Amino acid sequence: LLLSNQLLKDLEEVKELLTNATRKRIRDVLMTEKHKLELEIKNQPAPKPKDVLEEEKSSLGGYTVKINNYGWDQSDKFIKIYISLNGVQKLPAENVQVNFTERSFDLLVKNLNGKNYTMTFNNLLKPISVEGSSRKIKTDTVLVMCRKKREEKWECLTQVEKESKEKEKAAYDTSDPSEGLMNLLKKMYAEGDDEMKRTINKAWVESREKQSKGDIPMDI
């Protein structure tokens, strides 16, 4: 609209110059410019209705919400991630976009009740097939289907989750039972309140006393 106004002003000025020009060469140049401006104005796109403009504006702008809640399941061939979004089935299909790579995916839902929604999964546990992966829109739900490259069971979704589980397991799963118990007590002591710490200290002192008397062989 702004560009169109500028062109109209240019055309008015060229017409004004034409009325004052007396030299043929100058008039020819001005006439050529006049035709060019008229053609450019004619080819300008028609202004869009206000409601269309408002709709486009809201689809691009608006508040963006990061999705953190989801459910997941798996079959032999797919990892399935379920994301609940009220009314998502009413959106045009192109407003729900998923971009896959071999170890990640990004979900973008545009202009759902005036907001945009995003979710990113990086470092998936195992590689997926980009071509075989897709998304489905169901009632109040987006289902992201990640096609497994190998038909095997996944113990979790991401590499980070796996590392976290392994660290936790290693803290208690040792060949020496007393060492596992010690690690568990240390964790309880570190995370416990004052009452918990007093209880553990008391148990520790009592176990030391019993050990010194030869009542128990195991050092906890």
Which runs of at least 5 residues are low in confidence (pLDDT < 50)? none
Major sheet attributes: 4 strands, mixed
CATH topology of the largest domain: Immunoglobulin-like
**Number of discrete domains:** 3
How far apart, in Å, are the first and last alpha carbons? Answer: 80 Å
Oligomer: single chain
List the secondary-structure elements in sequence, H or E. Answer: HHHEEEEEEEEHHH
Alpha-beta classification: alpha+beta
Overall form: elongated
CATH architecture assignment name of the largest domain? Sandwich
Strand order of the largest sheet: 1-6-5-4
Q: What is the percent of helical residues?
A: 40-55%
> What is the percentage of strand-forming residues?
25-35%
DSSP summary, beta strand count: 8
Count of DSSP-assigned helices: 6
Mean pLDDT: 80
CATH class of the largest domain: Mainly Beta
Cα Rg: 35 Å
Short description, anyone?
The protein contains 6 helices and 8 strands; from the N terminus they run H-H-H-E-E-E-E-E-E-E-E-H-H-H. The protein is α+β, with helices and mostly antiparallel strands.
Give me the secondary-structure topology:
Blueprint: H1 2-20, H2 24-42, H3 50-60, E1 63-66, E2 71-74, E3 78-84, E4 96-101, E5 104-112, E6 115-121, E7 128-138, E8 141-148, H4 159-172, H5 177-191, H6 194-213
